[in-house]
C-alpha cells in the first residue's frame, strides 16, 4: 500500500485571518474613537445644570440631552437647541418619576442609541432647620428628589449605558452629605445633607455592583445660584460662604467627569477642583 503523506496545516491561512481580524478591530476602535460622546444631564434648565449643558453644547464631538421638568419654560435650553439643532436635545424629565424617566430614555434611544455619560444634577434644598424643626414631609421630599431621583434615573438608563464602551454615571452631591464634615457643621442642613448622604451610599453600591461602570460623586462647591441665594438668606453659616461662578463649577465638574476612569478604590466624594473629602 502506497504511503500517503498527510496534508500539512497551513499556518499562513491562520495568520492572514488573524491579521484581518486585527485590522477589523483596529477600524472599529478608530470609528468608536471618532464617535461623539452622548451626555444626559438632569436638572439642566437652571443653575449648575444649565452651566454644564451650555459648556457641553459649545464643545466638539458631543450629543447633549438636557433634562428639564417643564421644557416649555426652559427658554435657555430652547435657545441652545435652536443654536445646535443636530446635537442638542431637550427632554422632559421629572426627578423620581419612573414614567417620565422611561419616556426620556426612549427618546434618547431613538435619537442616539446609547448613553455614554449621565450627570445626575437635579436636586432641591428648600428648608433649613434643626432636627426638632424638620418635618417628615420636608425630609421625605428631599429624599425623593435628591436620592430617589438618581436611583430611578440610573435604573431607567442602565440599558443605554450598557451600549457605551465606557459608561459613566456622575452624581452632583454635596459636602453637606459627608457624615464627618457636613453633619458636624452648625447649620440647618439636616434634610438636604441626609438626602445627599443617602445618594453617596447609592453611588458606592452602583460602583460595587456594576464592574464596567465608572461612578463619580461630586461636590460642586458653593455656587452662585438661586439655591445658594436661598441658603444664604436662610442660614447664618451659609451666609458666610464664599461663592464661585456657575461657569467655574461646571468646568471643574466636566474636567473631573471627562477624565474619570474606573478604579477599585472609588468612588470618592470629589470636589469640582479634584480635591477629595471624607465620606
TrEMBL record:
Keywords: NADP, Oxidoreductase. This is NAD(P)-binding protein. Pfam families: adh_short (PF00106). One of its GO terms (molecular function) is oxidoreductase activity. One of its GO terms (cellular component) is cytoplasm. Belongs to the short-chain dehydrogenases/reductases (SDR) family. CDD domains: carb_red_sniffer_like_SDR_c (cd05325).
